[in-house]
Amino acid sequence: MSRSLIILTCILLFALLSACRDDVELFVSEELALTPPDETGGYQGFYLLNEGNMGSNKATLDFYDFDTGTYKRNIYAERNPDVPKELGDVGNDIQIYGSKLYAVINVSNKVEVMNAQTATRIGQIEIPNCRFIRFHGAYAYVTSYAGPVEINPDYTQRGYLAKVDTATLQVVDECLVGFQPDELTISGGKIYVANSGGYMGSGNTDNYERTVSVIDIETFTEEKRIDVAPNLHRIRTDQQGNLWVSSRGDYKGLPSRLFFIDAQKQAVTDTLDVPVSSCCMVGDSLYVCSVSWSYTSYSNEITYAIVNTQTRKILTRNFITDGTEEEIEIPYSVMVHPASGYIFLTDAGNYVTPGLLYCFNSEGEKLWSVRTGDIPAHFALLK
Amino acid sequence: MTNRKSFSLLLLYLCLPLCINAQSKLDSMQHILEVEIAAPRNSTKAIIPAQQLQGKQLKALNSLSVADAIRYFAGVQIKDYGGIGGLKTVNVRSLGTNHMGVFYDGIQLGNAQNGQIDLGKFSMDNIESISLYNGQKSDIFQPARDYGSSGSIYLKFRRPQFSADEKEHVKVTFRTGSFHLANPSVLYERKINDKVNASFNTEYIYSSGKYKFRYKRVLPGSSEVAYDTTATRENGDIHALRLEGGLYGRMDDGHWELKAYYYDSERGIPGAIVNNRWMNAQRQWDSSFFVQGGWRKRISERYDLMLKLKYANDKMRYLNPDTTLMYIDNTFRQQESYISLAQKYALTNWWELSLSADMQWNWLQSNQQGTAYPTRRSTLVALATALNLEAFKAQASLLGTFINEHIGDDAQGTAAAPNKEELTPAIFVSYKPLPHHNLTLRAFYKHIFRMPTFNDLYYTDIGNIKLEPEFTHQYNLGFKYIENPGRDILKQWNVQVDAYYNEVTNKIVAVPKGSGMYRWMMMNLGKVEIRGLDAVAATTLQLPHEVLLNLKGTYTYQKAQDFTHRRNPELEETTWGGQIPYIPWHSGSFIAAATYRSWQLNYSFVYVGERYHNSANIPENYEQPWYTNDVSVFKTIALNKGSLKAALEVNNLLNQDYEVVLNYPMPQRNYKLTLTYEL
What we know:
The structure holds 2 protein chains of 2 kinds. Chain A is mainly beta. Chain A has helices at residues 2-18, 76-79, and strands at 30-33, 45-50, 60-65, 70-73, 91-97, 100-105, 110-115, 121-126, 130-136, 139-144, 149-151, 155-157, 160-165, 170-176, 181-187, 190-195, 211-216, 221-227, 232-237, 243-247, 257-262, 267-272, 278-282, 285-294, 299-308, 313-316, 331-336, 343-347, 354-360, 366-374, 376-382. Chain A has 2 helices and 31 strands. Chain A has a 5-stranded antiparallel sheet with strand order 1-4-3-2-31, with no helix packed on it. Chain A starts with a helix and ends with a strand. Chain B is mainly beta. Helix content of chain B is 8%, strand content 56%. The N and C termini of chain B lie close together (12 Å). Mean pLDDT of chain B is 88; it is low at 1-44. At the A-B interface, helix 1, strand 24, strand 29 and strand 30 of A face strand 11, strand 12, strand 24, strand 25 and helix 6 of B.
């Protein structure tokens, strides 16, 4: 009796031990066949950067191929197997300039620089708390929240704009801007930076930043500030060279809103009552989608709209026409294919599990959808 | 003295096999002991006994904190962020951390702010037993608050006990080992008079928290290394001081106790390891103080009365000095006052009634901008009854909870959450079908809830005052079988198995809110269904040459599925029915302790099977199984009046690189040496 018990125990023990732990394998990408767009307009496809929830180290890269219609999910690790802990934590922006692909990885404090054709790593630009990237000439310009600390008497920290040589990937100059600068846009020899003050205003709306910094590109100094509204986020240049800026509002009484800055007057001359989380400028159309929390209904209110940047009127309050909008949880990012007019829209879902990428034709009818990484968020079209 | 010692040693040996499941013999023996020392006979035993670790078996577990020991219970999952100072929370039967009540010497530890008790902060120094009850302790003579959780862990600490010719006890312990651990502690116990004993205990812990960790990945389908990086865990240091004092008294037909506890610590928060960021700078200071007392008396043959009181004051400061991130320097202060009166009346010798009424006040203050200063008053009333018909035992209880909340003047437009009233029942039965076999069948049903925490309700931006409580329903069916052949080698063996179905409804989850990153709102949206099985088996073997071998194994199966409805059917498909984060389907533990004269050799093993780090069960979210093998050797040496005990421990013997929580690497093989001098 007792002997059999001992034997039994031993067997149990070895069984447990042998339920082994293997070496952990790198992620493999998955390929899914989808419909290609009617016309490619000279583009090969686009990269989609998934942010990944903070601390999860799950920023991932997907690629959609316009020629074949294949969707490749999670390609970074496979293309760069020797990079420890892969792409990093919280992808915040992605852009292609020349032959390089730049992915701004916020919590990893770096801009990952890759070959635009292959997504293989070329190097990285070290910028703490980096946010958005744009280009001009031989330089990349990156906004960062992490400027010098001032204690006077409160702890404050302005953000800055880093100027990066795209050949050497070195930061060559820095220019202080407002608190917590987000998007930037470059036109007419000026860099416009939307300052948010996001760290300052969470307890008190008055503490948000409300200005756009105007930086002269030659002297790389801040020339002036344009007063707009609290907590600025997006900033884009339209075909006329004028600027469209979005305010996030204060998440309480003050709603998100879109503002128009006349480039000549260097001042806000118009505003549209449309909340903005994500936007995409195509021709004279600014596609906008947004999620804003309503304390009345205790739910998210979702808006899709197209703004005509010439007439400065809202063309439509819904660019999805087949009812699909009813099921989208958190529309997080929109990108419109310039040639086909196809609308690519992401649903970030609950932020902690995978999201979805939708493709709608120019009429706003759903063509397909595909599972992405966590928080699908930023597009970069590849020529 | 020596007589007493050998007697208690004998008692221990006799009881060891039973300890795990407690109840029956051990309970009654302990009971006798306790009666002799303090309590006036009688206290209804729990109908469904606890899983319990105590005495030598507990000491054999190479644990520094309570969290390390709790891993050896069936049905339990520990979330461990790694290191001596790392957060460690317990989740029983997948119901969630906030549903667990943790009781420190009989009174619940509170955290109205986030509902989380960090078991890593509670030392194993002088702990006597750890008991885990599913549902609740099925004993009707207890405060109303003891009925208020989905599961309870009772930590019981050493009380001074003196024989007639003893006046004082001294115990000095020093632990050192990996992570630059320096951990001295002193216990002093004194007999003040025949009726009152005093005890004082202090402990200091320092650890650099530094340890090597390794991330290795191989190319798919091969063993070719993709990357293989070893680094040192930084900013995991801890300095902690604990002071504790107690007075323990007895009187005719009753006893009382008064305890004061103070804990002060500073620690680094090592944070998640992500690409290009292998170090973090966040710090946390905790200072906790509480004083608690209990008084219990048998008023008449039929009527028992118990009074409990507590006041707690906890301060927590969180600092993020990292200039690349948002600067945060927040201080939170929580206070709690608690009073409980429980009474029990025996209608007959087989039927008892009890009524308990508790009042509790919680306050939270902080220097965080825009936060409310909430106050909560909780009134709990529990009515319970117990039937004891030899083979058949049953208990039923009904708990009424009444919550009132207020907001201080500083609140910027925030209102207090509406008052809440809940009535929740529980029923426990056990049946012994065979008169000559120690087989007990048992079952319970319990419906209970957890209140939204102050953070859930009021935290800047995230808080939602419209939150409802989060409910659980538990259905349990099981048996326990004990056999005491008492002859030859096999002295005793027992096995217990429980199958259960649990539901968590109205689950409070963070839902993305509005535009921008990391903006959430707490909502009552989630639903989880848990189907599980807990099994425990233990035996004691008397081997030749005076070797006593104790073996204990646990196994847990849990299918804990997320059935949260989502707006997007396609996204719902990715998470619908998925195993919830960090819950393995299979897990288990094994403990072996061999005693030979003054030597003791221990081996313990913990296995956590494959799981996913979120409820979309896709390869990207897959987590490999992990398991640790720990070994220790104890040797006790008698020194004229006292005794010296030395223990050498090796943890994670196979040097496994593993994570319990994504991006929080755990230590590799590590060592600890403990020297204890007792007088």
